[in-house]
Every structure is written in C-alpha cells, then in structure tokens.
Specification:
disordered N terminus, Growth Hormone, Chain: A, disordered C terminus, mainly alpha, 438 residues
C-alpha cells in the first residue's frame, strides 16, 4: 500500500508530519539564496544597486503574472498537489543553470552576445515564474488537506507553517557556513532541494479541483476571473491595497539586509556571519507564528495586522541605529521584532482571505493576496528603493549611507500603519477567527 493510501485510510495519522515536511522544504529552497543574492550580485559580481534591483524585481513581476493563474488552474482544472510538484521540479532545474551561465554562453551564439547580468536576469525570472505561485499554492494545499480530514485550520496550520521558517533558517545557515553567500553555490543548494520537494509533492493526498456541476457558468467563472470581484468590496479592496504597501516594505528587508550586515568591517563577527546573524529574524518568526492563534482570538485580525505594521517601523528604525555605539544590540532587536512584522500580517492576511471568500475561489483569492504583497508591492519597493539609494544614499567613497536609508524606510512604514489604523475596518468576531469554513 502506498504512503498516500496509508494516510487516507488511517484518517490522517501522519498528516501533520507530511505537511510539516512540505512547509520546511517550501521555504528552504527559497531561503538558500533570497537574503544573499544581494551579496552575490553587489560583492561577488560587483554590479550596481540598479542592476541588482532589476534582478530582484523578477520576484515581483512573476508574483504579478503567475499566482492568480496558477490558483485558477488549481481551482478549476488540475489537482493542486500535482501542479505544486511540477512547479518545484521546474524551479529547481532552472536554478541549476545559474552556475553554468558561462557554459550556456559558450554553447550559444545568441547568448554569447548577452552580458552575464542580462542572462542571470532571465534565468532568475524563469525560476521565479515557477516558484512564486507555490507560496500561495502551498497554503491552499495545506488548508484543503486539513479540511479534508476535519482538522481545525486556525489551530493546526500555524505550527505547521512555523517549520517553513525553520527550513528558511537552516538554508541560510547552510549557505553561510558553506561559504556560498557570494557565489553561485547557493543556487545549487536551492535547486537540488526544490527537485526533491517536487517529487515529494506527488505523494501528498489528492487535492482535486472543485466538483463540476451541471449549472451553466459564465465566462468569468470558467476562467476563475470571478475572484477579482473581491475588489468590488470596499474593505477587501482596502486590505489588498495595504497588502501591496506592506509588500514594498517586506522586500526592502529581503533585498538589503545581508548586504547591509556584510558592509561592516571585514573580519568582524557581523560581516563574517552576517547571514547567521540575520537568521535571528527567522528564529523570531518561529516564536511569533505560534502566538498567532492567541493574538487573533484576543485582539482580532485588524489589530494583529496593525501590530505587524508597527513592528516594521521598529524593524527599520533599529537597523538605522546599527552603526552607533550599541549597534549590535539594535541589530539583534531589529531581528527580534521581524517575527511579528512578517508573521502577523502575512499569516493573518492569508487567514482573512480564507474566512471571507467563497470556497470556489479561495485558491484564486490566495493568489491575489500574494500578487499584491510579493507582486505589485514588491515591484514598487524594489524599483523605488534601488533608485533612491543610488540617488541619495551612495557616499563619495562608494559606501552606502545605510542609516539614512533605513530611517527613510521606517518613516514609510509608520505612514502606512497610521493610514491602515484609520481606514481599515474589521469587526473582531470569534466565529470568523476560530472557525475556518470547510
């Protein structure tokens, strides 16, 4: 009997362990390079912030293009866990091209005329087209499987998701300790594990599309475009707008965090172990994610998301003080508050979508959420921040005025938090928070 048969007939006795492994690998294959690609591009390759910003913007562009499309396919036409597996196998194979860019150029007349920076841009873009939709799809698969076995999603999903953060941390440590943070080996680590995850996904319980009915459907329903009707609701539209604004802040942290710590004097602990120090942020995630059920029940979704926005103010404010006399302490404090900043909005936001949308469009709605945070928001943050840093925070000696840049980012987050607190309305309801509809 296969593993999937054992799971289905036993009522899901090993279900949690299997979803934990999926969550662990989901973020391991991202964490191996996400926070260190800036070091790879600016230090390893010597490229400008503008060039690095363009490469990093592929995350945003792919998040705009792909999650909703993939969500529609999972909602309408294809088993979600199979689609998830195919995407990860493709992602892994593409990442394995990064160490072989010189070989690709030697084998192709067309590619030989392309600068290495341009070639890396298109390779990373292709990889992101495959990976970014798996973030929302992994949530949808987890929610669907938990519901299938009549589990309490609000209670059981956060402890499962926390192992995604553990995977991210382990990947960061692996990259740092293997000496890969400024070279292409980080992509080999990520790509190999992504292929493994892809094949593992095929063993998960079946997550078929919604059952077909004889009811005649409109063109929008067939294509899954009915999920975009969510923008017609004032509060939901506001939620998506603030998700976009938060996405800009989130990507600033991912883009420049390791590069900032690596800019400290050579040989110092902060510079040498920058990725490991930065991983304190992810350790913080593992703690705060476990507190989400308590905070949701106690304060409601709006206040929890507002706490997250205020935590982003502290995140960047503490980073701005990182080069002062007590800079190391402020850097650690910045990493500690990151857990609240990241988890409280993104996880609560995902649950907000799950509790306020029709089951027929939930995968599509989760895709829209990722599109606004990691898509439009990230693109805005990536492009704007790289231009602002190059224009206003590059010093005559070629170094970066990180204190000024982080201070500006903190002010931006404060403005977003105030606007969110005033404009967004959501009534605290024990029913909505504690009972995800099945």
């Amino acid at each position: 009997m296969s593993l999937i048969d054992v799971t289905n007939t036993s009522g899901g006795s090993n279900l949690k362990i299997r979803l934990i492994l999926m969550s662990f690998l989901q973020f391991f294959v991202w964490g191996a390079w996400l926070t260190t690609i800036g070091t790879y591009c600016t230090e390893g390759k010597g490229w400008t912030f503008g060039q690095f910003g363009a490469i990093f913007s592929t995350l945003a562009l792919s998040s705009i293009l792909m999650p909703s499309i993939i969500g529609i396919i999972a909602d309408k036409w294809m088993r979600a866990e199979r689609l998830y597996g195919l995407l990860h196998i493709s992602y892994g194979l593409i990442l394995l091209l990064v160490p072989n860019l010189a070989w690709l150029q030697s084998e192709s007349t067309f590619l030989s005329k392309m600068p290495e920076y341009d070639l890396l841009y298109w390779v990373i873009f292709a990889g992101m087209i495959c990976y970014m939709p798996t973030i929302s799809l992994s949530n949808s698969v987890s929610y669907r499987i938990l519901n299938m076995f009549k589990r309490d999603v609000v209670k059981e999903f956060p402890p499962i998701r926390v192992f995604g953060t553990v995977g991210f941390i382990l990947a960061m440590w692996t990259t740092n300790l293997s000496g890969s943070k400024d070279n292409s080996m980080q992509f080999v680590i990520a790509g190999s594990m992504a292929i493994l995850l892809g094949f593992y996904a095929f063993t998960l319980p079946a997550c078929p599309p919604e059952a077909k009915t004889t009811k005649k459907k409109s063109f929008n329903e067939i294509l899954g475009l009915d999920a975009f009707k969510l923008f017609g609701n004032y509060q939901t539209a506001l939620f998506f707008i603030f998700s976009m604004l938060l996405g800009a802040a989130l990507q600033l942290s991912n883009m420049y965090g390791d590069a900032y710590l690596s800019s400290f004097p050579k040989g110092t602990g902060v510079e040498k172990y920058s990725t490991i120090i930065y991983s304190i942020s992810q350790f913080s995630e593992t703690i705060f994610i476990l507190t989400i059920p308590f905070f949701l029940k106690k304060f409601g979704m709006k206040k929890v998301m507002l706490f997250a926005l205020l935590a982003w103010v502290l995140r960047y404010g503490f980073f701005a003080l990182g080069e002062t006399s007590f800079g190391s302490a402020f850097i650690v404090l910045s990493c500690i508050v990151y857990g609240m900043a990241f988890d409280f909005f993104l996880i609560s936001g995902s649950m907000y979508i799950e509790t306020t949308t029709d089951s027929k469009i939930r995968s599509s709605a989760q895709g829209l959420f990722i599109m606004m945070t990691n898509g439009f928001g990230a693109f805005f943050g990536t492009v704007a921040s790289s231009k602002i840093i190059e224009a206003y925070f590059l010093l005559p000696d070629g170094k970066t005025n990180w204190s000024g840049a982080w201070s500006l980012f903190a002010v931006y987050c404060l403005v977003v938090a105030v606007l969110f607190g005033v404009m967004f309305k959501h009534k605290h309801s024990g029913v909505n928070v504690e009972n995800i509809s099945h």
